[in-house]
Amino acid sequence: MLGIIGAMDSEVQELKNEMPDAKITSVAGMDFYEGHIHDKDVVVVKCGIGKVNAAICTQILADRYKVDSVINTGVAGSLNSDIDICDIVISKDAIEHDMDVTALGYERGVIPDMDNSVFHSDSRLIDVAVKSIEEANLSVKVFTGRVVSGDQFIAGKEKKDDLVNTFAGDCAEMEGASIAHAAYVNNIPCLIIRAISDKADGSAEMDYPTFEKKAAANSIKILKQLIKNL
């Protein structure tokens, strides 16, 4: 069973439309669509915005649906000058950038009492995603990079530069690292796919509404091909 998580309707609705006979179960205010896409067992869910919603959702997928892998699809702001709007970032790893216990001597992003704070993506899922993007014939560039997540919409140069300098982030969003975190503690392979909706700078508020739908549509195209290839 493959678990697919998006934070917003635009990130998962088209996948739900591919499952007309889906069994829908509501848990913790989230609707889990269980069915088939390309003859593969999948469960698709909108988790809502933010790290807590995303982590709760991932744990439900682990406990109730016993998923054997999790893919998080959606949009993000670019932190890398080479990565433009509508380009694709496949996660090599993910970090929670708003984890800050520096007052107790930890580096930013380090989660106390955990053996790991950088959550690496599954190598097989990365390979399948790269192949799937090539086959989807999207006229965008593809990057494998670091996703940094926090409960903030990044829309200023100072914060953007901080995330680049501190974490070497390639894109910023609000769910991926918490999904990767929850998958890690449950020993579930995980991958984050992000289409760039804005540049996470002073133009972000203007760019995001314009490009969010187009970026999300690109993510959906990739995910459909990826499901077929798994």
TrEMBL record:
Pathway stated in the Swiss-Prot or TrEMBL entry: Amino-acid biosynthesis; L-methionine biosynthesis via salvage pathway; S-methyl-5-thio-alpha-D-ribose 1-phosphate from S-methyl-5'-thioadenosine (hydrolase route): step 1/2
GO MF, one example: adenosylhomocysteine nucleosidase activity
EC number annotated for this UniProt entry: 3.2.2.9
Domain Nucleoside phosphorylase: 2-228
Keywords noted in UniProt: Amino-acid biosynthesis, Glycosidase, Hydrolase, Methionine biosynthesis
Entry-linked Pfam families: PNP_UDP_1
NCBIfam families reported for this sequence: MTA_SAH-Nsdase, PRK05584.1
Name of the protein this chain belongs to: adenosylhomocysteine nucleosidase
